[in-house]
Amino acid sequence: MKASILALVFNALGHHAGSVLTASTQHVLQSPSSYFAEDTWSLPPSVNSTANHIFSSVDSLLKHWPNTIYRNGHAFVVGTVPSGTVLYHGRAAEIPPYTPEWLAFDFEHSFMFSSWGKTAWMVTYVVDTPLKIGYYDGNSAAKLPEGSMDVQDLLTWGVAEANNTWKEWERIVDMCEWGEPLGLHGFVRMEVSFELMLCDFSQNVRIISHSELIPSNFTMPRRPRRNDTEEPDHLNLETETEYHLSSLGDPKPDKPGKRPMPPPGPFPPDSRDPPKGWRGTLRNFESVSIEALRAGSWHSLFAESRVHLDLTRYVTLFDPEYSSLFSTRINQTRTTMRGGDASVEDVARFRADVEDAVTRPNNITASGVDWQDLARAIVERFGDRLDHLNYTLSLIDTTIDERIIAARVRTQVLTLLAPYLLTSALPFNTSYPDIDITWAKPIHEKCSQTLIPDYPDTSFLPNESVLRDSFLGVTSEICRVVTLIWTGALDVESQAKFVVVQNLQKWRTYTKDLLDWLGWAHLIRCKPACEDDAFCYVPTWSVQRDLSDMTPRCMHRDDPWDTLPLDL
């Protein structure tokens, strides 16, 4: 299937895409000067702008919370897993893996998979030589037909189809075949936590521990399949061979493209026999699964540090170069947008751009900008203040006097814009500074540009130019909204009450629309905050399969499913 689909992709272009469509052909999002033109600086971004999505993707790389909320990733990034990194492989069988397999960065994640059988084996590895990897953003290990696996399937097979969702064994084998000539040793994805798909266990890693552990009593409810895109029924492993379980791996498959399966029987086993000398109960499904989830949440605020990404080799389907996706995003939200909707031509172009990014010589000089650090600086500067501003404006319909609310808004905007309020940027001799707003343009320009590297265009690699212009698009929109609020808030203390009320309503809409456009995941949280014995949770693959309602809610640490039924 892979060869025929990719042939179709490249033939549709009329030539081999990789020979002509290099990363250097990628277009920038928007000319930086256009953000500050006299007649357009106060206008909102184009409906086709993806600056917000690219920025959010970069800020969210290797973070659990945002990639759980925005499952459908669009980006591929080249990176390394450094020497000294410890990796875990849990399985029911004693023999270590020797074909492509899945490894976890956290023991708790891997232990889930050693819990599927009657015995629990844990093989622990250390990386001796750095692994060159490709990272897929989003919840890219979630076996869902709605788009979470699109990017890897486009790169591996040239197409993203729902009936491929559960073909994990075929996926890892074909992905490794694609990556081998590019020098890739494996791929990193996020499931309940982050995992490494390692292609070859004979090099770069070695076993440092191979132990049989106390098993868990990992039984769970069964349910009928809702449709053909879901995982095969657990009860008949003899005939269902497309289910991804890292606990399985020997002997070798007897049929090409199929994973070896355990002896027939109920899955998971209905009960475990604890080892001789064991006393008391074994850990149950709730305990094992919730600890895997909590391990993933360790990487919610700070990115998974055991993977080092090279953002000069970041390629995303949100790049406007892939213009076939513009029309598919109409009436879609960030959670429903799919990379798999790209045209045949754009898929070929994307694949060529990714291969160019992977194979680009190391001696080509980049700008030196740390794009993830820059994204964090922008979020830290504006995020909490915009959230606070939104909260203050939400008080309009309460008993608090509108003048008091307006005064608070004025102080907050004044504080936010303080580094950019020039003595020369004041209104002309007019009573209406929010009507003729040309005086505020220098404030917007300084606010937008201060944090963005002011280097010549030639300093940036083509992939970096996409990042630079996306970041500028985000700061420009933030500063546009805040500057417009400032033009009305400057003299709000002397305005008539009906004008104050009108302004507050307008500012509330401005701020809410801005936050919706930004979509910063760290501002999506449990309100009110959870008690000490609970943590904030959104439905997460694979501990929960019903992901239709992503409203954050508090989950008790010791009894997680008491108020949140598990839909398996």
Helix count, per DSSP? 15
List the uncertain runs: 1-28, 221-268
Question: What is the beta-strand fraction?
Answer: 5-15%
User: CA-to-CA gap between the ends?
Assistant: 31 Å
Topology, number of strands:
11
Provide mean pLDDT, rounded: 85
Structural class: alpha+beta
Count up the domains: 2
What portion of residues is helical?
Answer: 25-40%
Give the biggest sheet.
Answer: 6 strands, mixed
Biased composition (Pro residues): 259-269
Keywords: Signal
Signal peptide: 1-22
Region (Disordered): 218-280
Could you characterize what this model shows?
The protein is α+β, with helices and mostly antiparallel strands. The chain has 2 domains: 262 residues, no CATH class; 153 residues, no CATH class. The chain has a 6-stranded mixed β-sheet with strand order 3-7-6-5-1-9, sandwiched between helices. A 3-stranded antiparallel β-sheet has the order 2-4-8. Helix 1 packs across helix 10, helix 6 packs across helix 7 and helix 12 packs across helix 15. The longest helix has 28 residues. Keywords: Signal. InterPro entries: YOR389W-like.
